[in-house]
Amino acid sequence: MELYEGGCDLKLLETLEGHSDRVWSLAWNPATGASGTPLVFASCSGDKTVRIWEHTPSPSATWTCKAILEDTHTRTVRSCAWSPSGKLLATASFDATTAIWENVGGDYECVSTLEGHENEVKSVSWNASGTLLATCGRDKSVWIWEMQPGNEFECVSVLQGHTQDVKMVQWHPSTDVLFSCSYDNTIKVWADDDDDWQCVQTLGEPNNGHSSTVWALTFNASGDKMVTCSDDLTLKIWETDNVQMHSGDGYAPWRHLCTLTGYHDRTIFSVHWSSGGIIASGAADDAIRFFVGNKDGLADGPSYKLLLKKEKAHDMDINSVQWSPGEKRLLASVSDDGVIKIWELVSLSTGNGY
Amino acid sequence: MVSELINANPIVYEKKERRARSAPSDYSDEYAAEPIDQQEVFDHVRDIKDPEHPYSLEELKVITEDAIEVDDVQSYVRVTFTPTVEHCSMATIIGLCLRVKLLRSLPSRYKVDIRVAPGSHASEASVNKQLNDKERVAAALENPNLVDMVDECLAPSYG
């Protein structure tokens, strides 16, 4: 039985204040939330700082800001990402740099600064093994960095191909294939062919792609489906052949599966697929929406249905929504209103979380 | 300094008479929230100075009251402006000025779309896309040269 059959509700657990400008993005530390380790996430903002938040597993169950990473970035911090081990945090800034922070006994030290982009860096992502880092920015390029001993990062490739600024980079969850999405309305797939990184596929309007800026992308747990969100007010689901992907060269072509349209009223900035199969999207219409695969629609091929719509989730645009790791799935959302909200999606029939 | 003006001889129109805001009909509650209307939004932007002339956007008919759509219930404003020439490279600066002025003037619940009038600009789609990409707007507003330009256009001396 599906947990959401009886309907569900989004319960606000906490509202976190502290940033003095819009909050652009957040990242959960993937090594937290299990076996007694309290959940930790980082948030970044137009106030040029990054904040580290930790859950206190007390009866009051509250969140505290454990650290403020400041005086390093001189402009907006647009995006942040933890390494898979949770030991390093990468932060991408409009100041054209990407900083690497190491948690040393609760203190965060900037151990490396990656320079090379001409101007605003907009997104940063670690690959599954934590050996490669990708960045992208307004200069239309995507950079791949290899981690060397001693927190040194060497640029191994500068990928040109997008014709406008690149909004987000995201590694595939299990293979070293990189995805980027752009103001040029396309998603590009990059793979390594004998130490030579190349664009192996472009998903654009001619192959049922988006008709305006693509802001974000995310994968399902098994890595054979991807959802993208756009200024064209749609979400698009793409799929690939998992067997082909994990055999041979690690790359299999992606094809359009379906388009979720008519739900959001303004630009969709963020989308995140939970390991339990629930897609959350956050948009400039201040709402969060949840979608799940619709098993009833199998006759016409797979389809997705709206599970829940939370209007006025924030007072202003929602810039990022992210599901937490760990046993209990929480959702964090950040907004132009400067606050971070922690939510739990609960089933109305069982009262349990997902 | 700009050595060559994009539009050297713009037509200058007369300013519209400033109407007093009509008094609220219900005097019993003077603190009642008054809805924001077209005239109020127009008053916020009419005196913005053109980036290359000592005239206001109203005097150059870049902005008219009719080109402002307001839905106070939905907290939505759309401003449609008409650049003085089709190839106006100042269009993005004018749009940025409009956005900053409304950002400072309207309650934060408002969603604002800014666009050039259909058919009024050679790169209409790309100008509109840029003006409504909030990440680009945020980045532009961290650029000291652009901020100086915008602040100069918004300086209150052109009343």
In short:
The complex is a heterodimer of chains A (354) and B (159). Chain A is an all-beta fold and 354 residues long.
Give a verbal description of the structure.
- In chain A, 1% of the residues lie in helices and 52% in strands.
- With 354 residues, chain A is mostly beta strands.
- Chain A has a single domain, classed as Methylamine Dehydrogenase, Chain H (7 Propeller).
- In chain A, the strands form seven sheets. Chain A has a four-stranded antiparallel beta sheet, with no helix packed on it. A four-stranded antiparallel beta sheet of chain A has the order 2-3-4-5, with no helix packed on it. A four-stranded antiparallel beta sheet of chain A has the order 6-7-8-9, with no helix packed on it.
- The longest helix of chain A is centred in the last third of the chain and has 5 residues, at 242-246.
- The radius of gyration of chain A is 19 Å and the shape is globular.
- The mean pLDDT of chain A is 93.
- In chain B, helix 2 (91-105) packs across helix 5 (144-154).
- Chain B has one domain (38-153): GMP Synthetase, Chain A, domain 3.
- Chain B is an alpha+beta fold.
- Chain A binds chain B through residues 22, 46, 75-76, 78, 94, 119-120, 122, 138, 165, 167, 183, 212-213, 231, 266, 284, 315-317, 336-337, and chain B through 108-109, 111, 129, 133-136, 138-139, 142.
